[in-house]
């Protein structure tokens, strides 16, 4: 299957079994990380931060062939589904928001790409995923990671949600996975999707005021699904190289302010 077909499959799924789902680097997958779903917990940065501009953010996207073995393509901001997902379980709200196309707190700007694992002949191998890189002008990046960590604990036994399109989703459990030893903070989780009968993974790495978020699923190999460590390393490295050139801003306040921005997808200038 060619790259565009694989990416179209991701968007058609709305990552309902992947981006309307979550997880991380499973144990035994080759990713390095500490057990417990995260690291850097409680880390409070009072120092100045570097914020990527929309133009700089566009340059951190991985190219179509930048990571060998993967087909990477730019996606619309709505690739994760339109509208804001809903849930009756308020403690699970950070997880639900992360799985939709309108994250909260809202980033100043985002770029979204899909990835699919493929052989050298470009035939699709079943692993589908999405990468969302978002930059925040205040403390939204750290607030997002803290919210995911709290929600995963509160919702370990699962939760129900409705996607922005109105599709019902039921997750049987949320399990913490080893987080990558990258960035200043990172979390990783596996959600068991009872609706689609496929696990969904999410890994989030915070580098200063920028989040690299990875979502994945595999309909053909649920037991072997992973968020590839080499893909995570490549994306985070590119973000951190760009951050070294970004202007510094004063320390963020303790809570994010309203109207910070929004998901830009492929419309970032």
Q: Helical percent range? A: 10-25%
The CATH superfamily is PknH-like extracellular domain
**What gross morphology would you assign?**
globular
Span from first to last CA?
Answer: 31 Å
Structural class: alpha+beta
Rg from alpha-carbon coordinates:
17 Å
What proportion strand? 25-35%
* Overall average pLDDT: 76
Q: How many domain regions?
A: 1
Biased composition (Gly residues): 20-39, 258-269
Signal peptide: 1-22
Organism: Streptomyces stramineus
Keywords: Signal
What does this protein look like?
This is Lipoprotein. Residues 20-39, 258-269 have a biased composition (Gly residues). The chain is an alpha+beta fold and 269 residues long. The chain is built from five helices and 13 strands. It has one domain (3-252): Protein Transport Mog1p, Chain A (3-Layer(aba) Sandwich). Helix content is 20%, strand content 29%. Strands 2, 4, 5, 6, 7, 8, 10, 11 and 12 form a nine-stranded antiparallel beta sheet that branches.
Summarize the structure.
By secondary structure, the chain is of the alpha+beta class. Helices cover 20% and strands 29% of the residues. It has one domain (3-252): 3-Layer(aba) Sandwich (Protein Transport Mog1p, Chain A).
Furnish the topology, listing elements before pairings:
Elements: H1 3-13, E1 33-34, E2 38-39, E3 49-50, H2 54-59, E4 70-74, H3 93-98, E5 109-118, E6 124-135, H4 140-154, E7 159-162, E8 168-176, E9 179-180, E10 185-193, E11 198-207, E12 210-218, H5 229-243, E13 248-249
Antiparallel strand pairs: 1-9, 2-10, 3-13, 4-5, 5-6, 6-12, 7-8, 8-10, 10-11, 11-12
Signal peptide: 1-22
Organism: Streptomyces stramineus
Keywords: Signal
């Amino acid at each position: 299957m060619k790259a565009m077909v694989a990416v179209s499959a991701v968007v058609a799924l709305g990552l309902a079994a992947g981006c309307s789902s979550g997880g991380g680097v499973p144990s035994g997958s080759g990713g390095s990380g500490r057990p417990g779903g995260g690291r850097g917990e409680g880390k409070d940065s009072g120092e100045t931060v570097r914020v990527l501009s929309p133009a700089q953010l566009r340059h951190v996207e991985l190219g179509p062939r930048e990571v060998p073995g993967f087909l990477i393509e730019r996606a619309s901001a709505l690739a994760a589904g339109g509208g804001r997902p809903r849930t009756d379980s308020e403690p699970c709200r950070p997880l639900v928001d992360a799985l939709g196309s309108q994250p909260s707190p809202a980033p100043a700007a985002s770029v979204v790409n899909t990835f699919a694992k493929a052989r050298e002949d470009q035939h699709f191998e079943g692993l589908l995923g999405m990468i969302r890189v978002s930059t925040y002008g205040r403390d939204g990046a750290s607030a997002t990671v803290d919210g995911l960590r709290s929600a995963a604990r509160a919702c370990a036994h699962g939760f129900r949600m409705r996607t922005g399109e109105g599709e019902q989703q039921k997750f049987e459990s949320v399990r913490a996975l080893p987080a990558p030893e990258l960035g200043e903070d990172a979390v990783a989780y596996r959600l068991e999707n009872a609706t689609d009968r496929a696990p969904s993974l999410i890994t989030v790495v915070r580098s200063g005021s920028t989040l690299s978020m990875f979502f994945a699923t595999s309909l053909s190999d649920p037991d072997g699904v992973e968020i590839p460590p080499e893909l995570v390393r490549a994306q985070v490295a590119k973000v951190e190289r760009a951050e070294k050139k970004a202007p510094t801003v004063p320390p963020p306040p303790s809570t994010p302010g309203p109207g910070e921005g929004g998901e830009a997808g492929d419309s970032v200038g």
